[in-house]
Structures are given as C-alpha cells and as structure tokens.
Amino acid sequence: MTTSFNAEQPLWEPSEEQKQQANLTHYMRWLAEQRGKRFSSRHELWEWSVTDLEGFWSSLWDYFQIQASQPYTQVLASRNMPGARWFPGAELNYAQHVFRNATTAHPAIIFRSEREGWRTLSWAELEQAVGAVAQGLRQLGVRRGDRVVAYLPNIPETVIAFLACASLGAIWSSCSPDFGTSSVVDRFKQIEPRVLFAVDGYQYNGRPFDRRGVLAELQAALPTLEHTVVIPYLHSTPEEASAGLSKVIPWSTLLAQPAPLAFEQVPFEHPLWVLYSSGTTGLPKAIVQGQGGILLEHLKVLALESNLKPGDRFFWFTSTGWMMWNFLVSGLLVGATILLYDGAPGYPDLNTLWRFAQDSGMNLFGTSAAYISSCMKAGIEPGQQFDLSQLRCLGSTGSPLPPEGFRWVYEHVKRDLWLASVSGGTDVCSAFVGGCILLPVYAGEIQCRALGARVEAFDEEGRSLIDEVGELVVTAPMPSMPLFFWNDPDNRRYRESYFEMYPGVWRHGDWIRITPRGGAIIYGRSDSTINRQGIRMGSSEIYRVVESFPEVLDSLIVGVERPGGSYYLPLFVVLREGASLDEDLTRRLKEALRREISPHHVPDEIIAIPEVPRTLSGKKMEVPVKKLLLGMPLEKAASPDAMSNPQAIQFFIDFARQLQARSGSSN
User: What is the CA radius of gyration of the chain?
Assistant: First the structure.
C-alpha cells in the first residue's frame, strides 16, 4: 500500500548558483572575513553555533546590524536552563527592526480572503496605520508591559494592531475567532488584558459566523478589560459590528488620528507576546517570549534557514491562534512581503491555496503536512493546473510529513523545488530541526538541526544517540525559549513542562532520530508513543501506512498499558464515504502494518469512528484519548474547550466505558 522509494537517493539537490546566492553562504563568507571563522560545511557551522554560543549569537547581532539604544554588557550571563539570561543591558524594539524596511518599493502585505478580493498595503501605508493605532492605544492609557489581546482572523488589521502594540512595549496575545468563549477566557483571563481587538465575525468554508455574542461574553468574563476595539468584518458599519457590546471604540476612530511612529526602548528580555500550549489536559500554559529573543531567532531562521530575501513573497497558511502566524509576521523583519489568507484551505476546493500561490507570485509557500496529505489523497495536480514558476520553496510543519508526501510534492507540484520540512514548537516560536538550501532533500527526512539549537536524541538514561530513536532534547539554551509562564511565580509549571525528565536539559516531548548524515526524522509525540514489548514506535509511522489506504481518511492509535503487564493497542479509523470496515479491509490494514511497521504493532482491534478528536491547532489528541481508555474521567483527561471538534470525544467516553465493562467481565 505504500510507495517504494530509495531513501539514499536525493529527491532534490541545490544548483551551484543557488548555493552561491544563498543568504547562508553570504553569512559564512562574512564570518570568514569579519570573524576569521571558516567552515567547510553546513554541519561544521552548526557544530560551532551550538558550542560557542556567545560567538554565534553575537555574530548574528552584528551581521543583522541590530539597533540597540543601549549596548549589551555580555552575550550570555547565565547558561542555566531554565534561567539563561541573554544580552543583559541591551535595549531595543522589535517593531523598530520591522520598519527599517519602510523605504522599500515592494508591498509590505498582500491579503486575500473568502469574503473579499485582493488588498495590498505598501510599507508607507503600513507605517502610517501602525503609527495611528499606536497613538490611539497611548491615548487609551496603554503603556509598556500592559497586555493587549486580539480575537481576530488573519487580516492586515491584526498585523497593524500587533506592531502598534510592540512599538509601545506592550504585550500582545491573540486567539483565532473560531475559538469558543471558554477557550479564549482560559487564555486571556490569565494575563489580565486592558484592551481587546476583535472582529464582529468571520467566514469559513463559505459560511459566515457572527461572534458578537461571544464578544459580549468575553467583555463580561475579563474584569480587567477597559476598552474593546471592533473591526467590522461581517457587517458594513461600525454600529452594526458593535451591536450589543459596551465600551466599544471603532477601528476607524483609531486610524483617524495619524501620528509619527515612535519605538519604546525595552530590555532584550522584555515580553513581546504570550503564546499558549494546547490546553488538552488543563489550563493552557501562558508562554511568554521576549522582544530580543524573538527578534534574533526569527532573523536567523527566516534569513539564514529559510533563505528569505527583501521583496520575496512569503506565505504560511495559519490562523492567529497558531505560532506560525507570529512567525509569518516576522517575515517583515527581513523585508519580505507577507501574504495573508483568511478562509478554509479547501473552499471552494483544495486548489484554493495553489491558485493563491500562482496569482500572488508566491516564493515560499508554507503549509501543514496534513494539507499536503489531503491534496495527495484528493489526486489534485497543482503543477499541471497552475503557473508555479515563482515558487522556490515549499515549507511543511505541524506533524511529520511521510516519505510519500515528499515524493508527491516532487511528482505533482514541481521538480525543481526546495521542500523544507520543519519541526519545532510554540514553546520557542521556531524550529528545532528544519531546512537548508545548501543541502539535498531526502524522502521522509528533515534536512538538518537548526543553527544555535543543540538538538540531540536521548535515551532514558540521558545518553546521546545517533541513528536511534530517542527523546528530542535541547542541551543548550536558545534566546527564544520562554522567559517564564504567566502566573507561575516559582517556575514550577515551567520546570515540570520541560526539565523534569532530564534536569537542566530541555525535553520537548517528541521522538526523534538523528540520521548519520545529520538530518532528522520526527516520529510523533514521545508521550503517546506505542511501546509494545519494549519496541517503541512513533504514531506517525503507523498513520503513514494506515492513511495510505484510499478507504481511510483519518486515523488515531493509542497504546494502553493494563494491570498485569498486558498492552492493549486499538486503531481507530475514519472511513471515506461509501467504504466499510469489513473483514477484507481489516485484514489488509493489519497485514500492511505487520509488513511495513512490525508484528508487534498490529492493532488488537480496528474500530470505525466518525472523526478524530483534535486540538484547536489541529493536533490529534492521542494522550487525552489514552487517558480516557485508562479510566480517567473527562475532566482529568481532556478539556473539550481546547478541542476544534469537541463532539468527537464523546465516542471515546462511551468506548472507555465499554472497555472497562469488558475488562471487568474478563476478571
């Protein structure tokens, strides 16, 4: 059922011209000329970047010409994790570095949505709008350190509001308007915001969703909220958009008073924004990241790792509730034009984003592995249907991209395309492992470890592994690691989240294998790993086989340890319309898993389900389902408010009861 491929044969290799023109090559030449550092390979450069932390990060400071009103006194005051202190003494502003590009002629933002056609903002228009909104916030009393939150879709106004907030030294946090009331309150209430930016509603998959009722509930549930700025999106007038709400300021009022844009100078580790964990098993963790750390990390990953240049057209399909929105906005730091899309990727069909790529002249198209898999299953032919001549790079993240996904890209999208599969996390708002334009692409393999990220695979005893599956750990600090979690004064939740298994070492919670050639393969979450008879297997490997069947649209597998040492392994599948889980399909699925994975990972039973429960960011909820099957009550296993499809969990609640009844009757 799976496509055969030669893992040793590259799917793509960069040309000599691409290597010579790469930003990373320019940086390596600069290192040789300015620092006397010469490296014969990208791997040698990585080794230096994670060994001489002070040398590497200070070189980025100089290479990117960081503007600081006060100089730093040292690069790294403490290497302890948690507790590393970067660039003490330095004062700067993230937004100031965005507007270093304000004199360029190409657009700053190009936007398209289901609701409206093209909208383009020049750099001058962006700067004027940000200056006006910043002045409006100042008049509302917003100062350095105040929290400003947003319940907004991926539209230009969201970028404007964020940059205005950052220019003031205020702290930004956003949720997508498809989040329900409880999910938003669980996040925003923790950080006690003064101002809320919101839309009256949004459109998705061709349907409008009025959110004014939710906004009224948010106003009532956030006691620190003083002002709500409403942006009409479904309704044509500010009066209609704010019906039923109190203390509303129309967006147009903020824009009506232009003012020169000024930049509050803040310490390097001053908070820039608050991101959130998925909150599948409790209150979402409010992850605080700093202005300077994000500035340096995003300049590094966008310019050197993603090879973005001024004027490039940069897109990632995302909502404002996912860290990739923050990452996309940072494309402005390198002078790129950021492309925003608001709507469903499959409306009116799966060609929508490929059409957007053609019409916008997109150079870097970022998406999820799930979207690539959907296109593959649907049998669409982007390379034949659209002019993708401007597309140089396709980025994939969110979950492991299987080898078949790699091969589909090169067979059905474009032969001469750099496919950059990346994996990282909200926790650092960046990638731990990712792409490099200087290296070949192999099916199913992420090209390399990120510069400055000392990523290793650890066994249970904390020994570093090569070419073996282990825990993904980071053994040296990175500037974009969380400063702290909000409302975690003794860092207890922070330590428990990353440093409990290996003290002083960041454990991320993924299984990883570092390949002999320096690449990486991610096998899924380590806390949901299938470990049967001592043989560990990431769930992504099993999904690759199961979801290659045309009858299977989606799947979920969990391993449940039972008293007495037995191990129960059920596989849940969502079937295509018209397909049935008969004896033939069950037999073929088990045979494929026995053949492609191992006899140890053939499921005990296969069960058809209506849908796979997923988090708001689209991740399969393996661990909460596992906890339900272990007998935990729902309130301890999962939070429905943290789910994109809370109705899906009911099947597993019922199934867990049946499982317990079966277990009881067999004792």
Answer: 24
